[in-house]
Each structure stands twice: as structure tokens, then as C-alpha cells.
Amino acid sequence: MKSCNKILVSGLLSKKVTLNIPKLLDNVEFINSCPCTVNEAFSGEALNISRALNVLGDDVNLISIVGKDLYGDIILKELRKYGINSDFVHQLLEDTAQEIVMVDEYKEKKRYFDFKELEKNSYDNDIFCKAMNECSIIFLCDDDLSNDFFNIVNDYQKVLATSVENLESVQLSRKRFIHNANILFSSSKCLDEEIESSIKRIADDYGNDIILVSLDDGGAMLYVRKDNFIGKYPFVKTRKIINTDGREKALYASFLHCYNKTLDPYISTKKSLCFESYKLGGKGEMDGFITEEQLDKLYNFLYN
């Protein structure tokens, strides 16, 4: 397979409202005043992955659906501001999808999604194929938008990558997100048993070529089928940690970038840990990304 630097990312984009509260409660509780606790942003795994890849210097074909409303217009403007190709982001919904995240002082979260009328609107497969043909790696987010694309990707010689939030309770409709992926990303917080055993079981069940799991205590666990390798890579500290939001997406994006350049999962894992670590010093979910040149310097300093 010939490697190039163009990557397709497919996933939902949404408006996100984050509410910081003292404690998550099952019952409704009225709070008179909580200054500076409600924040709005545009979000979605596809947006975070695309933004990180863009900073690293990759050309990204972003596939998504937004609304014909003000929020959809703003998202398109934001993409252009970041330099992300918005040609394949279509305004097919009447209203842009929304997400509400409640976060308490212990960092416990509750998420609520409103996908609007997504199930009534499908992306044009011919346009998806046009975007895909320009790319060597296809990253499909674990959401309803990407469901229809798996069968298409399987007919082409492309590296298919995806992330699955909860490997231990995958719905039947989601199993192909795992089974068809050459590269599978996930998090250790979703694994019920010992991490290495879980990864080996998943690899045996689904036949993935590469599995990269972000570890709760930092670092990552890597599985490579062709070498029958599984091993832990420790966290590398690059600067003071300010915000951990988006750390896993940063890990996944930088791995895709490096693997697309080198086809080496071991170097890609080390470099992605450098990228993730530096990102943790940023103030927000979309802050703290570094360029490929900066990443190479950081990698050489830490590992050579």
C-alpha cells in the first residue's frame, strides 16, 4: 500500500453546552446563581480528530452533516478558520445536533445527545466515495452517521480505523465498528477485566491488525497482530497538565498521522504519546496541539 498524507474522517458535529455543577444529582435541584459555569462550544470526535490532524500538517477530508441553522453556518466558518476542508460537510438537517454535558467537582459526567432528525437524512454514498478515493486512511467515528459507510470502505484497499467508547457492552449494530477495523482505538476505563487479557480476547474475536488502548493512569497499551505483540507504553511528561479533555482523541489522531507516514505502529505509539502529553498542557479540548516539526523534536528529545 502506498502511503499518502490525506485522511478521511467521518463523524457528527454538534453544538455542546457544558454545565459545571457541585454534584451530579438524580433529582432536580434549583440553583439560584452559578457564575461562569455554563460554556458553549462546537464539538464532536470528528472535529477534534480533524483539528489535530490539520495542525500536524495532514490534508483531511471531513465527512459530516450539520443543520441549515445558525449553528451549522458557524461550524462551517469555524472549519474554514482552522483550515479544515469543509467541502464534504453538508447542511442536510433542519437543526444542528446538540449535546449537553454535566460535570461535577469530582469530574463525574453525564451526557445527553440530541441528534435531531439524523435518522431521516443519509449522506450521499457517491460523494463519500469521491472523498474516500483521495485518502489512504479512513477514520469512522462510532456514531450513526458512519454506519452506512462500512460496507463501502470494505470494497476498497484502504486502512480502516475507528474508536469504540465501550468495548465491553457493544450493541449488535456496533459490532462491525470493531470487526471491520484494521486499527481499533479504545480506553481502558471501558474494560471490565485485566487490560491485557481484554485486548487479547477482543483481538481474537474481531481480528483487528492493531489495537491501541488509552490507559486511565496515562500511557497506552498496544497490540500488533503481525508480530503477536502486546505491550504497555508509559506516560511521558512534557509539561504541566492543565486540562485532560480530549486527551484520547489527541492520542488517536496523532497515531493516525504517524502511521500514515511510517506504517510503523511502534514509532507511531511513542510519537502519539508525546503529542497527547503536550496537548494536556492546553486550556481546552481543542488547544495544545503541536506541528509535525515540533512533535519530531519532542520525540527525539524524549526517546533518542
TrEMBL record:
This is Carbohydrate kinase PfkB domain-containing protein. Residues 38-117 form the Carbohydrate kinase PfkB domain. It holds the Pfam family PfkB.
